Automatic annotation (TrEMBL):
Signal peptide: 1-22
Official protein name in the record: Vascular non-inflammatory molecule 3
Organism: Gavia stellata (Red-throated diver)
Keyword Glycoprotein annotated: yes
Domain CN hydrolase, chain residue ranges per copy: 31-307
CDD domains: biotinidase_like
PANTHER family according to UniProt: BIOTINIDASE-RELATED, CN HYDROLASE DOMAIN-CONTAINING PROTEIN-RELATED
GO-annotated molecular function: pantetheine hydrolase activity
């Protein structure tokens, strides 16, 4: 008699965890995504139209996630703005946002999608992670209501945050990060009141996460590495290879070498805006990278990295 699907899933998950625990390395993936962008408008689209656009991007990301998992990846990072793009005002981005709870609630959206407010994007990302037994890192938008008792509450009664989420192999939400250092054009989002230093433990090391422009600042970037001692940083980005950013691959590789950590950098791909350059970077230099200013194609990168790079005998 064949085992039931839940038992089979549990057995595969347990085996994967044991394999990771027994190894000093893990396989990481990043996907540079050529984002399908919405039409430019100052008026909000309907929630159904917003979800349809996001599903088109998630169809592409799901294909990359499946391919990475089939090649043995333990974790995959996707880019900033990778699910809905950019070109938004504060009002027009609202239909694309979801209320993202604190990971302390111990939630698997894939198996319990109605526990919180409608969250079809979180549900689908959770199912991608669960169905492929891989950690999935994505960038989406969070919305939080506020009222007049909060002196910082915007006039529309809500905070809107540029947000990274991480789902583990079971599809559980294990990390949520609100971008603290917004780029000058991100007027659709609010600054968090305090910088967040988000970490989480896995069978293959301690991870931290931040977004794009954050890498240039002490909080959270330096704090995660020097004070919280993460092994690997997850870095969704929409990086333009122009001043003040400079070339993505060179800058991000140098940052990983200088900080002494792995950096999993997943960039948005848009050659008209000089956005390209993703990689898997280590203290010893780049293990794999991609830079393509000639085509509009996405690209998947995989590499085997040290679980604890500071303990490596070749650590600089």
């Amino acid at each position: 008699m064949l085992p039931s699907q839940p038992l089979l899933h549990a057995a595969v998950f347990a085996l994967t965890v044991l394999q990771a625990l027994a190894s000093d390395t893990f396989i990481a993936a990043v996907y540079e995504h050529a984002v399908i962008l919405p039409d430019v408008t100052d008026d909000p689209v309907s929630p159904s139209d917003a979800l349809a656009l996001m599903n088109k991007n998630m169809d592409v990301l799901e294909g990359a996630i499946k391919e990475a998992a089939q090649q043995g990846a333990h974790i995959i990072v996707t880019p900033e703005d990778g699910i809905y793009g950019w070109r938004f005002t504060r009002e027009s981005i609202y239909p694309y946002l979801e209320d993202i709870p604190d990971p302390a609630v111990n939630w698997i959206p894939c198996t319990d999608p109605t526990r919180f407010a409608p969250a079809p994007v979180q549900e689908r990302l959770s199912c991608m992670a669960r169905n492929n037994s891989i950690y999935v890192v994505a960038n989406i938008g969070d919305k939080k209501p506020c009222n007049s008792s909060d002196p910082s509450c915007p006039s529309d009664g809500r905070y809107q945050y540029n947000t990274d989420v991480v789902f583990d192999r079971e599809g559980k939400l294990v990390a949520r990060y609100h971008k603290y250092n917004l780029f000058r054009r991100e007027t659709q989002f609010n600054y968090p009141k305090e910088p967040e230093a988000i970490t989480f433990e896995t069978p293959f090391g301690k991870f931290g996460i931040f977004t794009c422009f954050d890498i240039l600042f002490r909080e959270p970037a330096v704090v995660l590495v020097s004070e919280l001692q993460v092994d690997t940083v997850l870095f969704p980005t929409a990086w333009m290879n122009v001043l003040p950013f400079l070339t993505a691959v060179e800058f991000h590789s140098a940052w990983a070498m200088g900080m002494g950590v792995n950096l999993l950098s997943a960039n948005t791909h848009n050659i008209s805006l000089a956005m390209t350059g993703s990689g898997l970077f280590t203290p010893e230099g780049p293990v794999a990278y991609h830079y393509d200013s000639g085509t509009e194609d996405g690209h998947l990168l995989l590499a085997e990295l040290s679980t604890h790079p500071r303990l490596s005998p070749t650590y600089p």
